[in-house]
Amino acid sequence: MKLRYSVLDVFTDTPMTGNQLAVVRKADNLSDELMQSIAREFNLSETVFVRQPRLDYHAASLRIFTPTTELPFAGHPTIGTAVLLGLEMRLSGVRLEEKIGVVTCVMEKTGRRSGTAHFSMPQMPERLGEAPPVADIAAALGLTVEDIGCDDYEPALWSAGVPFYMVPVRGADVLARVKMERRGWPEVFPAGHHSVFLFTKVNEPGVSFGARMMTTALGFGEDPATGSAAAAFIGLLSEHEPDEGSFDYTLRQGYEMGRPSKISMRFTKRGGKLERGGIGGDAVLLVEGELDLPG
Hints:
Layout: E1 2-10, E2 19-24, H1 32-42, E3 47-51, E4 60-65, E5 70-71, H2 75-89, E6 93-98, E7 101-111, E8 114-120, E9 126-130, H3 134-140, E10 156-159, E11 163-168, H4 172-176, H5 185-188, E12 196-204, E13 207-214, E14 222-223, H6 227-239, E15 245-253, E16 261-270, E17 273-292
Parallel strand pairs: 2-3, 4-6, 11-12, 13-15
Antiparallel strand pairs: 1-2, 1-17, 3-4, 4-5, 6-7, 7-8, 8-17, 9-10, 10-11, 12-13, 13-14, 15-16, 16-17
């Protein structure tokens, strides 16, 4: 059985930076076990399997796997697949069926093998609960208690489909010296996939926040760019903005890994309530190949 696949760099316009994504075509006849094995073989943070959509006016149905588990939604697979299918199918509007629901993307071609895409969040972010004690957070990150906090942001658990512990830190220097203490990590961060999104304000051209995302349960330790975490982060950001207006931020991630990435975040508040939000970024097609699987 032969299956076409592509590898893209996502949340970047520069090849061999950003977050890598594998996209496998015509995966309708693959079992869950085989898709998980293929994702483990690619060993990237996520692999997408493209299937026929349930509705004809949708571009595709997606299954998204990390090396160890399936996800209902993820940002960089959504952006990367929207760019890839937009380029191939000459679409500017790309509707993708994911387990979380239908995700509508707007795609613009920027080159023969590149594009930029934005999508409206299929699920509004919600605060799921409080964070662990600050002393436990600091110890798990190789930091001091004084390192935790940024302006009046406080640690909390948020989700826009995938849960993340949001942890503010004092500055870019603190962000750069974070070191995971894997022992006891799931006990300190028990919810979801034990994923932690660290952030801080930065004074850099075109960038409002620096961020890192770390986890012990998805087959990798740190992710170069995490759109689902940025979507959850919008919930926290919206709490700190005025009751009315539209807001636009860019965060950078992956710099400490040598995989610089940029994620745009847009949201609107009306009457003190988050009304809509979206995530965007670039993607570059880097590799095209063929899987040769046993029949």
